[in-house]
Amino acid sequence: MELQQNSTAFEISRASTQVQDKLNKSQRSRHKSMQFEDNLSHEENPRLIYLNDPRKTNDKYEFTGNEIRTSKYTFINFLPKNLFIQFHRVAYLYFLAIAALNQLPPLAVFGRTVSLFPLLFVLCVTAIKDGYEDWRRHRSDLKENNREALVLQSGKFRLKKWKNIRAGEVVKICADESIPCDMVLLGTSDPSGIAYIQTMNLDGESNLKTRYARQETTSMLFEGETISGLIRCEQPNRNIYEFTANMEFKGHRFPLSQSNIILRGCQLKNTEWVVGVVVYAGQETKAMLNSAVSPSKRSRLESYMNRETLWLSIFLFIMCLVVAFGMGLWLQRHKDQLDTLPYYRKSFFEKGRLGRPYKFYGIGMETFFSFLSSIIVFQIMIPISLYITMELVRLGQSYFMIGDKHMYDCSSDSRFQCRSLNINEDLGQIRYVFSDKTGTLTENKMEFRIASVYGKNYGSFVPMADTLQDTPIAVAPPPPPPPVGRGRWKLKSEISIDSELMELLHKDLARDERIAAHEFFLTLAACNTVIPILTLSTSSSCANSKLHEDVEAIDYQGESPDEQALVVAASTYGYTLFERTSGHIVIDVNGGKLRLDVLGLHEFDSVRKRMSVVIRFPNNSVKVLVKGADTSMFSILKEDDHIRHATQNHLNEYSSEGLRTLVVAARDLTNEELEEWQCMYEDASTSLTDRSIKLRQTAALIEGNLRLLGATGIEDKLQEGVPEAIESLRQAGIKIWVLTGDKQETAISIGLSCKLLTPDMQQIIINGNSEDACRSLLSDAKAKYGVKSANCRNGNLKGKKNAETDYLEIPGDAKLSNVTQWHAGKEEGTMSAPLALIIDGNSLVYILEKDLESELFDLATSCRVVLCCRVAPLQKAGIVNLIKNRTDDMTLAIGDGANDVSMIQMADVGVGICGQEGRQAVMASDFAMGQFQFLKRLLLVHGHWNYQRVGYLVLYNFYRNAVFVLMLFWYILCTAFSTTSALTDWSSVFYSVIYTSVPTIVVGILDKDLSHRTLLQYPKLYGAGHRHESYNMYLFWITMIDTLWQSLALFYVPLFTYRDSTIDIWSMGSLWTVAVVILVNMHLAMDIQRWVLFTHVAIWGSIIITYACVVVLDSIPMFPNYGTIFHLAKSPTYWLSIFLITILALLPRFIFKVIHQTFWPSDIQIAREAEKLRN
User: Fold this and answer.
1) Among candidate residues 698, 717, 736, the one where a domain is terminated
2) What is the rounded CA–CA span in Å between residue 871 and residue 743?
3) Distance (Å, rounded) from C-alpha 933 to C-alpha 911?
4) How confident is the model at residue 824 (pLDDT cuts 50, 70, 90)?
5) What is the pTM of this model?
6) Using the 8-state DSSP alphabet, how is residue 867 labeled?
7) For the chain, what percent of residues have pLDDT higher than 90?
8) Please, what's the largest Cα pairwise distance for the chain?
């Protein structure tokens, strides 16, 4: 193409273009009028919006107002609704039933008020917390609904509260204001109809987005015409990336898309004002429809805890049966004495004679009542306080994780975030990590490094120190000087410039190579959605340093870092995009302005994997410029393209260097092709159903028979510390799978550079194009490496599972091979090396949707590394689900972009990276951080600590309550199964709530078995979580056996000590109350690994508080235990009993720990000893 440099020629061409547009428009209008009704007939119930006529728009009162409500409760429904939600916890229903039973006269073991106290306390605390949170939501809603916006009323814009805005009204928004509802743009302060918005509140992305008003409506506003028209749009939905509608205006119909709508919650930036019509208001806006929270996840350890709770329920049932059975036998044995025995006599004695009848219901009913009474007495066997304790402990753990300065990212000024508080301990049991590559392992800061233009390679990998376009770029040999104005653009980037390519661009030649290079950079500058932001600055770095001259600095805002890098590269080589409107773009080509009319844009999608733009040049020629992935581009190129082979070789070289690649191509459109495309394009654009499918079909019309121009290589550098983090995680026994949309060669290169793949690994590559091909490739690989099916692996597999790294070792008698890469289906020998599976998205289409999942699972779990390339977002979630459904292993997914959200939500633990692709991943995640390297500390340090703490916390709570209940059980057996208690009602209630709760919480938050330095130095210590060393069935049963012994010591030592005394039962109860608190606190003290000030205060303070409470309770005259502690404390026997109880109860535990740690020490214990020796 001959480059037009003359501005006059540009204006003439522009005028002729406008004439041609009018002619084409009249033809297309007739065509569209026939097609439009067909499109609408497929939309079952389109929403009709009459511009500036809200009454007609909502004549049936079917649309909601703009008032929003994010609160959960109202004043009327708060109590019933909150209670209904709280009683979804089965444990609460259990304690409600216990409290209800205690209200019945025959079963009133405790005081009726006292029995309700624990449940009421928990319900009230939760209700107050929920009520406070909801009050804050109400306050926020009130503030939001009462904000004001300018609404067109009686021909003038007047202020109106947001909550009163209705669909169909015309609203004006000024700069930096928030959008009150979803509006279709009618006009902006820019005559071209362009507006810039920030969508951070909606999708988390901080970069500016471009939105356009149609030229037809923009002119209406500037000419002061009456605003009228009709919009037909889709019904409200939560898809923020699509909008399907069309508008009738002055007898014409034209399409509306996502680029024409601004959504509630966004902010107007760099634009003085916009005017729009409301299409969705209030709860029907896309922001409100997307306000649902992420799916809640449940801790794995908590599910195990429910299993043990079931066992405790069985123990409780058995104890109640024993008491009831014993009661029945006792009553049967003494049935002839029931008239004279206390508590069971049939009648009261009055003046020596039988008086009114006593409430005796018969042996059968008394036995049944005894069973129910036993449930009430033993109720705390199921620890209701454990739920609150775990929530508080997790909250404290999260506080220290958030405050960890080692997980603070200075570059993004972001600290660690805990967005989910109920799965902290799962971080210590992760077996699989599924990671995105771009932006997660790499920085996602793209830099143009190299290019293949017309079959020739240009560029190098050595970055220049500074590339600012203040000065003409000198090359050797020096080209002709660029035109005046070349030096006025200033970029904020550092890229390398190839002097040979720069010289080619400046040669005044008409050869194919020169034309291809010109169109190549023109495509990079034009085929995108990047927004140029111009700012005026002063430069003093001219070649001769004579004068300061004004230059315009350009900053490019784009939705994709790749696009920004390509536009910056084009600008560096002299093709500077500096103006964009809805209908045209302007490019500075070596100092001359080139205005290009944009006739249509087919944006990138995951099906086509390419992007194209149709532009008209000043000389009225029309071209389609296309860029996309090589897998989708090579199939639509000309067959006889002679540079294809060279470009393909260059792409392979780029990929092997870890560069991201794109292929660039173009073609000229004839008038007939253009007219056909325009008709189909506008028909597809105005369709209310299947618009995306129709647009793809339209794109296929012009995206074919393309002329290859070249390819690009963009560098995405590894994040700092990634190789070290991956190596540490691997040593910890964690398998890392990388799921990326990049091509296979790029992914392999990045895998090698980050030490995910090692040279000694045997690479298995699966690239299948059909179900049969994939089945064959998987079967060949399994047979070659001796991989057995999962159901027979345990019995027949000759290989063994390495406990340290948990990868399948190939049997030693396997054959060796001299190559390190093996393509499935080719006959080669096997080798005894760790395996790496590399599979592409095309193969996964057949594998995940067919019956090949088990084959993939068997092969993948036998490999140390799995690398999935060219995968779609749903495929990422499918791979995570494959492991979740077929193993009990914990999974973690980490990513930074919107395409990682489904994977993050599918995994047991989701981690978001605060990266360059917005904050969608962060908002959907359970935890968020600035860099991938922090994952090492999160898992190996905080994950280990949290798992060890919470595991011990659960076991200790089971022990603490069980030892108390068993003490009561032994007492009941010695009191004729009467379900009486030696302890006061308040002592029983305070035991879990006050006496022993604080030490548990403090230890659960602060205790550390090892320092963070040791845990990072020896990653294999993380394997304790994989082996469930802190919480398992064995530990549970050992704890229960120890609990049984301690309860016996607790009950019988005072019994034997005071067997010959005249001590009353309430004094014995006071002794047991204090003794059990001291015992469980000493038990806890034996297991504390790290003593700090707060630990001392909690342990010893708990004992002091218990004594204080006992003294207060024993000082109340109305209580039966009045004054008992004052008499007991004077006796040496009292103190001796407590001492003997503590020694005898804990002695077996102490001996067992000493023997076990001496002869069978765990890795944790060995590391702890080494740590002590170092210190």
Assistant:
1) 717
2) 9
3) 12
4) low
5) 0.73
6) E
7) 31
8) 133
Residue 609, annotated ligand binder? no
- Predicted local distance difference test score (pLDDT) of residue 1140: 94
In a domain, 527, yes or no: yes
Q: Is 438 annotated as a binding residue?
A: yes
**DSSP assignment, residue 938?**
I
Catalytic residue among 436, 597, 806, 889: 436
Return the exposure string of 458-482: e unless at least 16 CB atoms fall within 10 Å of the residue's CB, then b: bbeeeeeeebbbbeebebeeebeeb
Instruction: Please give the average per-residue pLDDT across 930-939, as a whole number.
Output: 93
Domain enclosing residue 245, as ranges: 165-290
Q: Which amino acid is at 1057?
A: T
The size of the chain, in residues, is 1175
Extract the tokens encoding 414: 């972001």
The top-scoring range by mean pLDDT among 468-472, 538-542, 757-761 is 757-761
Question: H or E stretch including 1077?
Answer: helix 1065-1087
Phi-psi region of 689 (alpha: psi -120 to 50; beta: other; left: phi over 0): beta
Residues 859 and 877 occupy one common structural domain: yes
What are the strands, taking DSSP E only, across 699-744?
707-715, 735-739
pLDDT tens-place string over residues 876-898: 888 999 999 899 899 999 988 77
Lowest average pLDDT, out of 156-170, 348-362, 557-571, goes to 348-362
SS3 931: coil
236-263 residue pLDDT tens: 987 777 788 889 888 888 888 888 999 9
1049 in the same domain as 990: yes
Orientation of helix 944-973 relative to helix 363-377, angle to 10°: 150
- Asked if residue 735 belongs to a known ligand binding site, the reply is no
β-strands 927-929, 417-418: how paired?
antiparallel
Please tell me whether 563 is known to bind a ligand: yes
Closest by CA to 880, choosing from 893, 870, 894, 871, is: 893
| pLDDT value of residue 695 | 86
680 and 729 assigned to the same domain: no
Of the pLDDT bands very low, low, confident and very high (cuts 50, 70, 90), residue 279 is very high
Give residue 9's pLDDT.
33
Mean pLDDT over 348-372 rounds to: 68
Averaged pLDDT score across all residues of the chain = 80
pLDDT score at 801: 39
Q: What is the pLDDT of residue 957?
A: 93
Q: Any known ligand binding at 870? A: yes
**CA terminus-to-terminus distance, the chain:** 76
What was the pLDDT predicted at 608? 81
Between the alpha carbon of residue 95 and those of residues 87, 118, 313, 747, 959, the distances in Å are: 10, 9, 13, 56, 19
CATH classification of the domain holding 264: 2.70.150.10
Q: Find tokens 């010289």 and name the residue.
A: 503
The answer to the question of residue 23 being in a domain is no
Summarize pLDDT for 72-85 with one digit per residue, the tens.
Answer: 888 888 888 888 87
Q: Which residues contact 171 (CB under 8 A, 6 or more apart)?
A: 149, 150, 151, 152, 165, 180, 181, 183, 275, 276, 277, 278
Quickly tell me which residue has 């035991």 as its tokens.
Answer: 991
Instruction: Out of 241, 274, 290, pick the residue that ends a domain.
Output: 290
* Annotated binding residue 369: no
| Same-domain pairing of 530 and 590 | yes
* Backbone torsions φ then ψ of 1060, nearest 5 degrees: -100, 10
Tell me: is residue 78 an annotated ligand-binding position.
Answer: no
Q: Is 356 known to sit in a ligand binding site?
A: no
Q: Is 742 annotated as a binding residue?
A: yes
Q: Answer whether residue 403 is part of any domain.
A: no
Domain assignment of residue 743, yes or no: yes
Instruction: Give the Cα separation of 1110 and 148 in Å (integer).
Output: 61
436 annotated active-site:
yes
User: Which residue bears the tokens 């050797």?
Assistant: 476
* CATH code, domain carrying 836: 3.40.50.1000
State the pLDDT confidence band at 664, using cuts at 50, 70 and 90. Answer: very high
263 is written with which tokens? Answer: 């959504």
Gyration radius (Cα) of the chain, Å: 38
